[in-house]
Amino acid sequence: MAKTNDGVLKGQRALVTGSSSGIGREVVKEMAKAGASVVVNYRRGGDKANEVVQEIKDAGGEAIALQADVSKEDEVQDMFKKMIEVYGSIDILVNNAGLQRDAAFHEMTLEQWNSVISVDLGGQFLCSREAVREFLRRGMVPELSSAMGKIICMSSVHDGIPWAGHANYAASKGGVSMMMKTLAQELAPNRIRANAISPGAIKTDINKSVWGTPEGMKGLLTLIPYGRIGEVSDIAKAAVWLASDESDYVTGATLYVDGGMMLYPSFRTGG
Ligand code: NAD
Q1: Does residue 172 line the site of ligand 1, with CB under 6 A?
Q2: Which of 11, 29, 166, 203 is most buried, by the most CB atoms less than 10 A from its CB?
């Protein structure tokens, strides 16, 4: 394992939702590598989560797996309770869990709309609220961090770029952006920091149908000025920085990790 982040999160306790796969999996591993004791949250499929826990332990880190559907209030509260029983508290929350239920606008069912909003936005609210309650209960721990607590919301370039066929997803990510900023404004006096990472196209299962074929990948690359698809490590490194005291003066910010996708690439030659 590379040693770049060793120690910057030493002694801190981090929960990463939806971390048995994709971006979350790499984020939780990178946080453990940086010295945090971590919770690998999963909704279904404990085997994959246990694999991640084992990988972290094999590398000398500390991890447990906890099941919870982030859209269910009782399950979220139970997960936080168990985490606090095991680790004593929480210092870092990464709201990463998310899903897509795509449909043309006029064909989208209320069930498709609600399922995305309740996980991608509602889940971030429920987990952030529990984390903030615990930060405020526990207070500052100056030997661990200059902040009372850190929240990182996984958003998307679609918090700013409209996305035909994905109205529920774009609405949820736009909502995440304003929830994060409001949270940051409200709780900055308590030294609680909230920020977002907005990934562009990152190679995971969520978008395999696009990058999985040569034509799909070619089309995708026309949207990315930097000329390559993103890797999960691109996001994990940004998450560790936002969770660490290295970014202590950063709150309410959105870090676009997108190879320039937000730069209106079609305007390079048109417009
Ligand atoms: P992924 O499908 O591998 O990861 C999503 C994870 O969330 C999965 O482990 C899934 O089981 C979990 N999850 C879904 N619903 C859940 C629930 N109700 N409770 C708990 N966990 C739940 O995809 P990913 O690409 O790693 O996505 C991670 C995050 O990054 C998502 O919020 C996604 O919107 C965001 N994102 C991804 C990309 C990309 O290009 N991959 C781009 C922008 C934003």
Answers
A1: no
A2: 29
Q: Which residues are catalytic?
A: 169
Q: Give CA–CA dist 188/174, Å, rounded.
A: 21
Nearest to 40 by CA among 99, 119, 57: 57
- pLDDT (tens digit per residue) in 125-164: 999 999 999 999 999 999 999 999 999 999 999 999 999 9
Return the residue whose CA atom lies nearest to atom 19 of ligand 1.
69
Pocket flag, ligand 1, residue 95 (CB < 6 Å): no
**Is 2 a domain residue?**
no
Per-residue tokens: 132: 């903030």
Q: Which mutation among 42, 120, 179, 204 tests ligand 1's pocket best, with the greatest number of atoms within 8 A of CB?
A: 204
Is position 187 within any domain?
yes
Q: What number does the ligand 1 atom closest to the CA of 230 have?
A: 40
DSSP E strand boundaries for 43-176: 62-67, 92-95, 149-154
What's the gap in Å between 270 CA and the centre of ligand 1?
Answer: 34
Number of structural domains, the chain? Answer: 1
Q: Supply the CATH number for residue 124's domain.
A: 3.40.50.720
Task: Name the residue range of residue 247's domain.
Answer: 13-258
pLDDT one-digit tens code per residue, 75-111: 999 999 999 999 999 999 999 999 999 999 999 999 9
